[in-house]
Write a structure and sequence with these properties.
It is a single chain. The protein is of the alpha/beta class. It has a single domain, classed as Vaccinia Virus protein VP39 (Rossmann fold, 3-Layer(aba) Sandwich), CATH 3.40.50.150. Strands 3-2-1-4-5-7-6 form a seven-stranded mixed β-sheet, with helices on both faces. Strand 1, helix 2 and strand 2 form a beta-alpha-beta unit. The longest helix is centred in the middle third of the chain and has 11 residues. The radius of gyration is 16 Å and the shape is globular. The N and C termini lie close together (11 Å). Its EC number is 2.1.1.-. This is Class I SAM-dependent methyltransferase. GO terms for molecular function: methyltransferase activity. It is an enzyme of class 2 (transferase). InterPro entries: Methyltransf_11 (IPR013216), SAM-dependent_MTases_sf (IPR029063).
């Protein structure tokens, strides 16, 4: 995330589809003022139990309960992979973002897709491609001034040596299991 967004300490961030709050807490630990949003009341109860100091809001990605430009940054880490209309969700995220939106997706062009698609926790997930994710942004208004992307996790379950080698690979290889796309509203803002 840091390479694609370069967040500044104190910026506000909305984590759409926060689930257990794992990434929400990591964003908070990086100095961001975060809000987690999820449609599942049981998941929000769980997150409130572990991080009562953070704001947790019930809502859906396709109808965010916030005014336009409410957050500096808006993220969705794999949550769009579980909704039927990612284009509508991205448009809503764009609406409430002042500076940038980052979506993290499961990459259809990855080894993980070959191993896990349709099984276990991935049974109901949609696996997307970079081209599809880029096409979702074509209807955004205003159009993004800048778009960046990258992938990580090229060899799932590779062990310690694999994790070291992973850091040496360029992020612009299109075969990582996790695909991230960042969309920026103001090209003059450092990215």
């Amino acid at each position: 995330m840091h390479r694609l967004l370069q967040p500044q300490s104190g910026e506000t961030l909305l984590d759409v589809g926060c689930g257990t709050g794992h990434f929400t807490r990591r964003f908070a630990g990086a100095g961001l003022a975060v809000t987690g949003l999820d449609p599942d009341p049981a998941m929000l109860d769980y997150t409130r139990h572990w991080s009562p100091e953070l704001p947790w809001v019930r809502g859906t990605a396709i109808s965010l309960p916030f005014a336009d430009h409410s957050f500096d940054l808006v993220t969705a880490v794999t949550s769009l992979c579980f909704i039927d209309n990612p284009e509508a969700a991205l448009a809503e995220m764009w609406r409430v973002a002042r500076r940038a939106v980052l979506v993290g997706l499961l990459n259809r062009r990855s080894l993980l897709h070959r191993r896990k698609a349709g099984r276990g926790g991935y049974a109901n997930a949609r696996w997307d491609s970079l081209g599809e994710a880029r096409s979702w942004s074509s209807a955004l208004s205003p159009a993004p001034d800048a778009t960046r992307w990258g992938t990580v996790i090229f060899s799932p379950n590779a062990g310690p040596v694999g994790r070291v080698l992973e850091r040496m690979l360029p992020a612009h290889l299109p075969f990582g299991a996790f695909l991230a796309l960042s969309l920026h509203k103001d090209a003059s803002t450092p990215i």
